[in-house]
Amino acid sequence: MTSSQTVWLTPEAHERLQEELATLQQLTDEVADEEGTDENTAAIQRARRARIQQIHDLLVNAVVGEDPPNDGIAEPGMVVTVRFDDDDDTETFLLGVRGAEHGDIEVYSVQSPLGSAILGARTGEKRTYTLPSGATATVTLLNAVPYGMHAAADAK
Fold first, then answer.
1. Where are the domains of the chain?
2. What pLDDT, on the 0 to 100 scale, is given for residue 30?
3. What is the pLDDT of residue 63?
């Protein structure tokens, strides 16, 4: 993530990212202190630095735990339920950010085909999007609630 786009994170995901960042920085510092590195070690270091930058960008631009309004509109921080119109299957997921684990719920980013299609949709609204195969799919937004409300309901 190289833009300054605001991202929504749960407090738990924010904490996990901070812990991962600290671990990666420590590992990177330890390897940097060693003399001579082989190609494999250098490749691992590049991957670590890339992940460190990705986490840093997420944390700098994060809105942590502030639920969006409970207005039924699909946006980051909302747990949405959609029905796939071709087979009547439903799926519930968090519109959030990939690369930051949010517990047991599946996460779709707003950059994914489905996430971008339903972004801004209101309950009952149909949206069509293109699948990676090139086919199109239509979904109906059945429900959108703030993550905090969804998590509280699951805890009961």
1. 7-64, 78-155
2. 76
3. 85
For residue 69, count CB atoms less than 10 angstroms from its CB and return exposed for 0-12, middle for 13-18, buried for 19 or more. exposed
Multiple choice CATH, 78-155, 3.40.30.10, 3.50.30.50, 3.10.50.30, 3.30.70.330: 3.10.50.30
Q: What is the structure's pLDDT at 86?
A: 83
Tokens 């190609």 belong to residue: 39
Lowest mean pLDDT among 107-111, 125-129, 152-156: 152-156
Q: Could you tell me the CA-to-CA distances from 46 to 32, 130, 148 in Å, in that order?
A: 12, 34, 36
